Amino acid sequence: MTPLPESRFAVAFASLLLAPFALAGLALLNAGLVRARNAAHVLMGSLCVIAASVGAYFLCGFALQGFIGGPAHIWTIGGKEWNWVASLPLFWRGVDWNGSLAALVIWSQLLSVAFAALIPLGAAAERWRLGAACISAAVLGGLIYPLFAHWVWGGGWLAQLGTNYGLGTGFVDAGGSSTIQAVGGLSALSLTWLLGPRHGKYSPDGMPMAIPGHNAVLVLFGCMLAWIGWLGINVAGALLFSGVDSGRAVLIVVNTTLGAAAAAAATAVLTRARFGKPDASLTANGFVAGLASGSGACAFVPPASAILIGLIAGILVPLAIENLELRLGIDDPGGSISVHAIGGLWGVLAVGLFGRFPPPAGEGQWLAQLIGIATLLGLVLPAVYFVNWLLSRWRPIRASADGERQGLDLHELGAGAYPEFMTHTDEFLQR
Predict the structure, then answer these.
(1) Is the pLDDT assigned to residue 429 strictly greater than 70?
(2) Domain that holds residue 86
(3) pLDDT of residue 363
(4) In the prediction, which pLDDT does 431 show?
(5) How many Cα neighbours within 13 Å face the side chain of 184?
(6) Do 88 and 63 form a contact (C-beta atoms < 8 A)?
(7) How confident is the model over 195-211, as a mean pLDDT?
(8) Is residue 4 one of the residues assigned to a domain?
(9) Closest C-alpha among 18, 41, 22, 26 to residue 404
């Protein structure tokens, strides 16, 4: 494990220092989009799923994911070598912590796997038991995420589509539109199917009822924190997994910012046109969708294309949220499926549509991206659904009806996020 060049190491290291802000931002956004009686539960759940996912990644996740050029199990099929899974010791044994690629990959992936595990919390909020969330996050962090990340970022078979079949440079994802966003978003989708909608979300005739979040300030502040963290995730991912030069860090930061801004503007304009006033929570989700969709191509498109990718993401999100609720009966309080699954899949496709790669590498890139999307929908989605279905057969994953009515803060934690709101009465106004 030879050390990375100093310039690349320094930029990646500095970028990873920003990445935890994305986790904090997503946790605050999810907390603000639920009712006050569940806010503490969402934030407590965020800490717990982070702990469970990174613990599982330490146990076996990195051993399955590995890194580019690392030892792996390779099968020869049709005369071509296909890299399916890494072959490294458990518990990070043998890792050179002296500036090696493996060391930086571990650091970046601890943050990435925690990010992916946080995403389902927004969709399953107000009804997902804390223990079930931790077990689900551990399986995601120890098995499902590392396998797909190896195929994309560890030199696996998706990345080999270019060398084996001449499909561009192989499947490309600079900042995690597929590995983080789509994997987390598809996990959220599987959970909403299994959990069902919240009590009171749908009227007897099947019409969805509005259940607004309790704190728009938390939601919007969470967006700001997520933006800062996303800059670090995208730069580090592009440097470590896509082989770009450290000098492209400025372009990555610019494209990430432009995509988020364009998406927020598109959502604000669309909601104002439809409802008469811009919707703050939907605009926040549009902003994050711009970050999610722009991650895949952030190092390979000019700024104008980054703006277009963001504009499309900002239009997709409110339309997706509305149709998921109205037509499919999917109750997603945080908009996680629309933002991360749909936004992430759009970001994967955008690499093939707008990415600029030196010829002849760019030929067939769109097909490599489509194969990646098919893998996410045909393998990853069924896998996360099956895992959570097995968990639901073993023990209840949904809180009881009484717990939902009471609020999961009191039901599972024994204390509310805002206890003074329940104790203040008129007598406190007397002088």
Answers:
(1) no
(2) 23-421
(3) 77
(4) 38
(5) 32
(6) yes
(7) 91
(8) no
(9) 41
